[in-house]
């Protein structure tokens, strides 16, 4: 047993002996408040498009002076509703065959919020994005509608997470060398769709990612997480599909075998179109770009106009952005005025000299440091994931 683990167990972790005396394991279960809206925070129409359980950030509400997305303005994606969780009685349960001392779920180790706060604090600024961001363009730009929330490009933000490295937690609870897979489960209500209950929102991920840069986060931009964003503690897998960052984290199953859930077998993998039946679960986000403009923006004619935008990628910083103001006939490099941090977006601008009156189409096409460039057309998939094609943004010069 590593010394650190003994210390941690002695000082901070309670074994799940409660099960033996008949008390349910997992002291806190998220409760939905009857009649309460799925999303708690205000959704002013100037900042959001309200989809009910989901809310999209409006790109025309973004200021070039704000690199990070403030929590009140960040998109929300809920499978059910934001639960009410008491931080003091909240516990993270850790169990599974991949621990040095394997444990059944009924004998899970439990960690409190105070336990986590005793570990070294870390901060990480990263782009946070839903897998389905841009989905509506499968319909409007490519003529092949896909099922799911009709996001435009605002299911994304860049925030500074505050928390602890998951690897620090795993080392202290004693992760076995042959552990391969970790399943994170949320405390929100079970997900029911089409008359079927799929249980708690949960998704497995490889131990390699857990030991690399995964976080257990309790804060965002120097504030506690808002209820909608996972209070008190959520998982964060930087650069990966949003579904990987389980909110209201309730348990981690660490296994020496591959774990699965409907969120990596049924959803969040490519199905339909030209994709093979055995396409792997989606992990790293693609490259995308957005203009900080309303759809069908009005631009004054005969003047020099500076247009702003951002580009991002789950793999690496965006290092080059090419823009076109004539629908893709001619391209020019955008001016990069704030290069992305390792895991977060790049801000750029384009100076449009005295545009002529009429309808125009703006395009922005980004390339990341991993050499990935946005395509002009994205192959269709049934759930409309990963729309990464260059979006054709209409503007009218008047
Ligand atoms: N427990 C739980 N975690 C979850 C979800 C959820 O519905 N329940 N939605 C996921 C999806 S699909 C996305 S895109 C992100 C959204 O995070 P946000 O609402 O904080 O922006 O959370 C992920 N984690
Ligand atoms: Mo998502």
Task: List descriptors.
9% helix; binds molybdenum atom; binds ligand MTE; 5-stranded antiparallel beta sheet; Sulfite Oxidase, Chain A, domain 2; 398 residues; mainly beta; disordered N terminus; 6 helices; Immunoglobulin-like; single chain; 5-stranded mixed beta sheet
Query: What is the CATH H-level superfamily of the largest domain?
Result: Oxidoreductase, molybdopterin-binding domain
CA-based gyration radius: 22 Å
Mean pLDDT: 92
SSE ordering: HEEEEEHEHEHEEEEHEEEEHEEEEEEEEE
| First-last Cα distance | 72 Å
Small-molecule binders here are:
the ligand Nc1nc2c(c(=O)[nH]1)N[C@H]1C(S)=C(S)[C@@H](COP(=O)(O)O)O[C@H]1N2, molybdenum atom
Outline the structure in words.
There is one protein chain. The chain has 398 residues and is mainly beta. The protein folds into 2 domains: 14-265, Oxidoreductase, molybdopterin-binding domain (Sulfite Oxidase, Chain A, domain 2), CATH 3.90.420.10; 288-397, Immunoglobulin-like (Sandwich), CATH 2.60.40. The chain has 6 helices and 24 strands. The protein has helices at 3-11, 113-117, 136-140, 166-173, 207-212, 262-265; strands spanning 48-50, 54-57, 76-77, 91-95, 109-112, 122-129, 156-165, 181-186, 192-193, 196-197, 202-206, 215-220, 223-224, 234-236, 249-255, 287-291, 297-299, 304-313, 318-324, 332-333, 335-338, 346-353, 358-368, 393-397. Strands 5-4-15-8-11 form a 5-stranded mixed beta sheet. Strands 6, 7, 12, 13 and 14 form a 5-stranded antiparallel beta sheet that branches. Strands 17-24-23-19-20 form a 5-stranded mixed beta sheet, with no helix packed on it. The protein starts with a helix and ends with a strand. It binds the ligand Nc1nc2c(c(=O)[nH]1)N[C@H]1C(S)=C(S)[C@@H](COP(=O)(O)O)O[C@H]1N2 and molybdenum atom (MO). Molybdenum atom binds at residues 77, 130-132, 242-243.
């Amino acid at each position: 047993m590593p010394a650190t683990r003994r210390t941690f167990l002695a000082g901070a972790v309670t074994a799940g002996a409660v099960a033996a005396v008949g008390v349910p394991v997992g002291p806190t279960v998220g409760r939905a408040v009857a009649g309460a809206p799925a999303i708690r925070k205000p959704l002013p129409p100037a900042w959001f498009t309200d989809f009910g359980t989901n809310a999209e950030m409006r790109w025309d509400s973004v200021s070039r002076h704000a690199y990070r997305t403030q929590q009140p303005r960040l998109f929300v994606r809920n499978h059910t509703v934001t639960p009410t969780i008491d931080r003091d009685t909240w516990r993270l349960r850790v169990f599974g065959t991949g621990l040095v001392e394997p444990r059944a779920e009924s004998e899970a180790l439990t960690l409190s919020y105070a336990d986590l706060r005793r570990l070294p604090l870390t901060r990480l600024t990263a782009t946070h994005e839903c897998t389905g961001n841009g989905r509506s363009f499968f319909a409007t730009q490519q003529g092949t509608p896909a099922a799911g929330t009709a996001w435009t490009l605002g299911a994304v933000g860049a925030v500074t997470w505050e928390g602890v490295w998951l690897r620090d937690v795993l080392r202290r609870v004693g992760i076995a060398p042959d552990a391969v897979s970790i399943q994170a489960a949320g405390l929100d209500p079970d997900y029911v769709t089409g008359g079927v209950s799929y249980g708690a929102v949960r998704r497995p991920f490889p131990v390699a990612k857990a030991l690399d840069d995964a976080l257990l986060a309790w804060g965002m931009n120097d504030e506690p997480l808002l209820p909608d964003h996972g209070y008190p503690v959520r998982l964060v897998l930087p650069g990966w599909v949003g579904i990987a960052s389980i909110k209201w984290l309730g348990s981690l199953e660490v296994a020496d075998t591959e774990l699965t859930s409907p969120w990596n077998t049924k959803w969040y993998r490519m199905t339909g179109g030209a994709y093979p039946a055995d396409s792997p679960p989606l992990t790293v986000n693609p490259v995308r770009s957005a203009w900080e403009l309303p759809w069908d923006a009005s631009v004054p004619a005969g003047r020099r106009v500076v247009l702003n935008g951002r580009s991002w990628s789950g793999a690496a910083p965006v290092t080059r952005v090419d823009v076109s103001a004539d629908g893709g006939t001619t391209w020019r490099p955008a001016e990069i005025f704030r290069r992305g941090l390792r895991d977060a977006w790049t801000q750029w601008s384009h100076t449009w000299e005295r545009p002529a009156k009429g309808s125009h189409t703006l395009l922005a096409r980004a390339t990341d440091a991993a050499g990935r460039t946005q395509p002009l057309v994205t192959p269709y998939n049934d759930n409309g994931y990963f729309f990464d094609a260059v979006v054709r943004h209409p503007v009218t010069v008047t």
